Amino acid sequence: MTSPHQITPSRPAQLPERPSVDGLEEKWVGVWKDTDVYAFDREAALASPREQIFAVDTPPPTASGTLHLGHVFGYTQADCLARYHRMTGKQVFYPIGWDDNGLPTEKRVQNYYGVRGDASLPFDPDFTPPQRGGEGKTLKAADQVPVGRSTFIELCEELTVIDEQAFEDVFRRLGLAIDWNVQYRTIGDRSRTVAQQAFLRNLARGEAYQAEAPGLWDITFQTAVAQAELEARDYPGAYHRVAYHRTDGAPVHIETTRPELIPAVVALIAHPDDERYTDLFGTTVTSPLFGVEVPVLAHPLAEMDKGAGIAMCCTFGDMTDVQWWRELDLPTRSVITRAGRLQAETPAWITGGPGESLYAEQLAGKTVHSAREAVVEALRASGDLDGEPTKTQRKANFYERGEKPLEIVTSRQWFIRNGGREDGAPGLRDALIARGEEVDFHPGFMRSRYRNWVEGLNGDWLISRQRFFGVPFPVWYAVDEQGEIAHDTVLVADEASLPVDPVGDVPPGYTEDQRDQPGGFTADTDVMDTWATSSLSPQIAAGWPTRGGEGEGSDPELFAKIFPFDMRPQGHDIIRTWLFATMVRAHHEHGTVPWTDAYLNGWILDPDRKKMSKSKGNAVTPLDMLQANGTDAVRYWAAAARPGVDTVDDPNQIKVGRRLAIKLLNASKFALSFGELPAGAAESDLVTEPLDRAMLAGLSEVVRRATQAYESWDYSTALDVTESFFWTFCDDYLELVKERAYGGEFSADGPVADPTPQTLSARAALRLALSVQLRLLAPVLSFATEEVWSWWHEEGTSVHTQPWPVVEELAAAAEADPAILTTVGQALAGLRRAKSEAKVKMRTPISAATIGGTDAELERVRAAEGDLRAAGKVTGEVSFAPADTLTVQDVALVEESA
What we know:
With 898 residues, this protein is α/β, with parallel strands linked by helices. The two termini are 62 Å apart.
C-alpha cells in the first residue's frame, strides 16, 4: 500500500476516448479486492501513536433477506468519514460483521425452507426441506414442517452464509472501504466465545442474574421481549365500566379495556390525592363474577382524570401493573400463559368461589379474545356491567417485529443490570448517564436521546430468548435427588472450554449419562438476545482476549492499543438498543466507554415520510438503483444529507450525483489534455498568472473549509463546498483558461507561440487543482475519482491512499484574490449573454464592449483581461466604466460572412 504521507508520482496521461461512469464498479471493485487497498496494517498501527489510528465499530447488519436503501444511506455516510481519516495518514481499523442470529433469521429460514423448529424432535442428517426459496410469502405455522433443534440450526447456518455473501457483494459495489480481512459473524465461534466469556464474568460479578419475574412475551414467536424492542401501536379496544363491591354491597366502578383479566385482579389503585376514594383506602372490595377479596390502595401513578380515576391492578395487564405489583408488594395471580391463552386449570384463589364454574367451563384454555367475550357476557348477566362497552383506540405494546399485542407472563429469564432497577445496582443508572457525557455525539442533540432512554428505564436488560439460533448460555442446572431442577444451583462452563453448547456439552465434573437424571444436571436451552452479542462488537472485532489471550481471534496487544474505538456509526433509532447495550457492556467489563464518538445517521423516509424498514415492508432494495444510476450517484445522495437528518428518498438528488460524476470525468479529461509539464518542474512554481492564482486561492479556502467540516464530522458540508467550487471551476475557470492552456494566448493578432510561461501556468494550475479536487471528492465519488487518478498516476496506486489535501500545496496562491475568478466569470457570462440575445454562435467575435463595475471589480477584470478576451472572442477594444455593480454593455459583434 502506498504511504499516505506523499502523493504518488504522475506519469504521461493516458486518456480514454469517451469517459463513462458505466462499468466503473465492475472494474474497480475487482482491483480493490485484488490489491487489498483498504487493509489495516496491524504492525504499523502497533508502532504508531494512538492518535494515528482511527477505529470504527462498524454496524453488523442483520443478515436476513436483502439490504435496503437505509443501509446504503447510513453506511455511505460512515464510509466517507472513514475514508477521510485514512487520507489524513491514519491507520483505519474498519471491520465488518454480520448479525446472523436471532428472530429475523429464524423467521426467514421458516419461510425460505418451509420449516419450523421443534425442540422435542431429534436431529435428522438426511432431512431435505420441502422448499428452497419462498421469499415474499409468510407461511402459517401449520404449513411448516417441524424439524429438530439441530436440523433447524443447520438450515439457519446454510441460509445466513448465502445472505451474507449477497450483502458483501452489495457492500463492495457500494464502494465501502472496509477491511474485508476483518470479518465476524455473531453466531461464529469467535463471537460465541466472546459473548459467553463476557456473560460468565457478568455473572461472577453479580451484573448478570436470573429471576422468575413478569416480562413481556410475544405469543406468536414464543419468546420474551426486552423493553428496547417495544413498539407502541394503536389497537382497537373498548372501555367496560365494571362494578366491584364494597363490604356493604355498594358498587365501586372501574373502567377497563381488559375485562378478561378480572380473574387476575390483586388490588384496586387510586391516586392518594383523589378525594373520591379517600374513605376506601385501607379497605377491601370483592371482584365481580369471582368474589375475590382485594385491597384498595393508593399510588401516585394512578391517573385521576382517566376513566373512573380508580384502576384494577392485575398480574399482569401492562407495565404499570408490574410496577404496582413490585412497589406495593402484591401477590401474583397470573392467568395468561405463554401460549396467549388462559391457564387450563382453575386458579386456587377462584376455586370454591362463585366464579369457579364460570372459569372452568367458559374461560379455561381460551384465547384472550374468546375469554374477553365470555367475561363481558357474564358481566351483563350479573348486572355488573354498567352500560355497554365504548369503543376506543388504545395504545398497546408490540414486539417491533410482531403482529399481536404482547402479554406479560411470569417466567424465569436472564437479565443484565443496566440501571433500570436501582435495588440491585445502586448508582448504576447515574454511572451510565455519566458515561454518555464522555462520548461526543454527532449531531450533539442526540445525546439527550441517550440520556432520556436511560432515565426512563423501568427494568433491567432481559437478555434470554426462547429461540434456537443464537448464542447459548454457557450454564447448566443441578438436578436434585428427587429429579427437580435446582435453578439456584447454576453450573458454569470453564472459560478455557468456550464456546460451549449446553445441549451437547456437559458441565465440569459431570458426564453425559448424568444429563436430566436425579443427582445430575440439565442444560439451559435458552439463547442470548442478539443484542447481547452485537453489543460486544468492538471486543469481537479487535481481539478482546479470550481463553487467556490464546483463543481464535484473540489479539490482546491490538485490543489494548485501539480500545476504546474512535467511531460508532449507527441509526438514531437504535440508541436505546445497540448503542446503550454496548455502553453497558464496556462499563461492566472495562470500566470505560467503548468509543469516544458516536455518529448518528437519520432515517430514509418513503414518500409518505414514514421510516423505510424491512419489517414495515416499505423498504427499497438498493441494487437496482446502484446499477441504474451508478454507485457514485447514490453515494452522493447519501453524503448530501446532513448528519442525523431524516431524508426522503429522492431520485432527483441521485440524478444530480450522476451528473456530477460524469462532469468530473469529462472535466478531468479536458484538464489533462494539454500535454505534459517540463520534467522536474514543481506545479506550484509554474503558476504565475493572476487568474490561475485566483482559482487556486479559492480552492485553498475550499480545502480549509472541507477539512474543518470533516474534523467536525460534517461530511455533507465538505461535499457542499467542494461541489460548489467544482462547478465554478468547470463553468468559469476552464472556459476562461482553455485558450491559454492550449498554447494559443488570444490577441487581436491571433495565437502566440507555445509554450509560454503563461501557458505553463495554466497547465500547472489545472493539474494541481485537479489533484486537489479529486482527493476532496474521493470520500464520496469513490469510483470516478479512482478512475481519473489512474489516468495520470503510476499503475497500482489509488487516490484513496493519497494524502488529504492541505493548503500548503496551494502556496502559489497564498496572496492571490480568489474574487478575480468570480468577477471575470461574471464578465464572461455577460459577453455570452449578449451573443445569446443576438442569436449568434458563441464563437462569433466581439469587436467592442464596455464593462462597468466598481473600482475593485474593474481591477480584477483587468488582471485577467487576456483570458477574458480569449474566452469571449473579443478582438476589439474593451472599455471600462464606473458602475455600482458589474455589468457588460455596448457589445458590438462582428457580422458573420455570408
